[in-house]
Structure formats: structure tokens, C-alpha cells
Design goal:
Blueprint lengths: L5 E5 L3 H13 L3 E5 L2 H10 L4 E5 L7 H9 L6 E6 L3 H9 L4 E5 L3 H15 L9 E4 L2 E4 L4 E4 L2 E2 L4 H12 L4 E3 H9 L7 H14 L9 E4 L3 E4 L4
Parallel strand pairs: 1-2, 1-3, 3-4, 4-5
Antiparallel strand pairs: 6-7, 7-8, 8-9, 10-12, 11-12
Length: 230
């Protein structure tokens, strides 16, 4: 039997922390709690969580700064909690490398499902046969869930890896943002700017000139397409 995933929940609202903890424990996860960014970073430094549920509006060190510092040293999945009116902060969080977000007020059951979905993708088992995708000096090892460019390993979040692997698996095929949300994120609905932000982050990591992308092309009026080298 697999060990339960360790999830750190960071929120300054005691009621939110308690409700989220109960639902995540019911889903089989081991849960730790923090009510501020400083304590969260200290806990993460001592432990190795499998996922962090992170509220953006925290006292002291806010959620954006926690995410920024976390991404400097770790690719641990992050699911953000944001208020309805915090679109700018939500996009900023995605730009910093958050994997998913849930908007307050939220369904605790939906949050638990999102957490489980991100954890499943992060711990996807190896395929029956080894599969490695390449495009020039870009190499994506699907079973190992690693990617490298010019021999140097890329620091990709769970969602960034999934998006790159999906696009590279379908070279020359254009996908709408809605299709990518469904096929990469597993969402039937959601903010399509999530896709835009992740594409931008990927371009910054795999394109020599992100402003003039060669690999991930924008298909105007449609979405995105991966153009493999001839």
C-alpha cells in the first residue's frame, strides 16, 4: 500500500484550515497546517511535503512570496487559494510556478479532488514501455518525468511538464486553450489564462528567444501548436 501523501495547508483562517484538513484527511492524505508564510517556509525547510495548499493573502510573508521562495529551491506542486477579486494575484501565482488554483469561496470537495489530481500527475507511474520525446536538443523522458535542453535538466513544475509533454506528443497539431485545459489539466471548465501563463513560462525555459518562439507557436484565433524541428 502506498504511503499517504503529505500535504501542507497554509491559510490564516482557522475555519478554512480545519475544513480543508478534514476533507484532505478523508481523501487519504496526511496533513500539516501553518497559518502564516514564515512558519510555512520553516516547515517546508524541515520536511518534504508532496504538495502545498497555499492561500495568497497571508500575514507577513504573503503567498506570492512564499511561492517565489519555494520555487527557487523546489518543484513541489502548489495549489493556490485565491479570492474572487484577486485575478492579478492568481495570474502572478501561476507565473511564479503554481500548478493549480481554487477560488474562494470554494467547495472543499473540489479542492480535495484538485489536490488528488495534481498529486496523481506528479507521481504518474512509468509507462509500460519507456518513452522519450525529442526535438533537437530538447529531450522529454515521460516515465522519469524529466526534461532537458542541451543536456541541462529543466526545472519544470508538474503542470509545465505535462503541458510540454502533451504538445511535444502532438507536433503540428493546433489546440485551443479550452482543449488544453481539458486534456492537460483535466478541467471541464476554468480560467483559460492559466494556459496562457503556463505557455509563457515554458517558452522562457525552452525557447532561445521567448518573444519569438520557434517551438511553441501561437495559432491566432485558435490557441497553440508545437512546431518540431524539420
Amino acid at each position: 500500500m502506498n504511503a499517504p501523501s503529505r500535504v501542507l495547508v497554509v491559510d490564516d483562517d482557522l475555519t478554512v484550515r480545519d475544513v480543508v484538513r478534514r476533507y484532505l484527511e478523508l481523501a487519504g492524505h496526511q496533513v500539516a497546517l501553518a497559518d502564516n508564510g514564515e512558519d510555512a517556509l520553516a516547515w517546508i525547510a524541515r520536511n518534504e511535503p508532496d504538495l502545498v495548499v497555499l492561500d495568497l493573502m497571508l500575514p507577513g510573508i504573503d503567498g506570492l512570496e512564499v511561492c517565489r521562495r519555494l520555487r527557487a529551491t523546489s518543484a513541489v506542486p502548489v495549489v493556490m487559494l485565491t479570492a474572487l477579486g484577486e485575478e492579478e494575484n492568481r495570474i502572478a501565482g501561476l507565473q511564479l510556478g503554481a500548478d493549480d488554483y481554487v477560488t474562494k469561496p470554494f467547495s472543499p470537495r473540489e479542492l480535495a479532488l484538485r489536490v488528488s489530481s495534481v498529486l496523481r500527475r506528479a507521481a504518474a507511474p512509468p509507462a509500460a514501455a519507456a518513452r522519450v520525446l525529442t526535438d533537437g536538443d530538447l529531450r522529454v523522458d515521460l516515465p522519469a518525468r524529466t526534461a532537458s535542453l542541451g543536456g541541462a535538466e529543466l526545472a519544470l513544475t508538474t503542470r509545465e511538464f505535462d503541458l510540454l509533454a502533451f504538445l511535444l506528443s502532438h507536433p503540428g497539431e493546433a489546440f485551443t486553450r479550452e482543449q488544453l485545459l481539458e486534456r492537460v489539466w483535466g478541467w471541464d471548465f476554468g480560467d483559460q489564462s492559466t494556459v496562457t501563463v503556463h505557455v509563457r513560462r515554458l517558452r522562457e525555459k525552452i525557447e532561445p528567444a521567448p518573444a519569438k518562439p520557434r517551438r511553441i507557436a501561437t495559432v491566432w484565433g485558435v490557441g497553440y501548436r508545437y512546431d518540431a524541428a524539420p
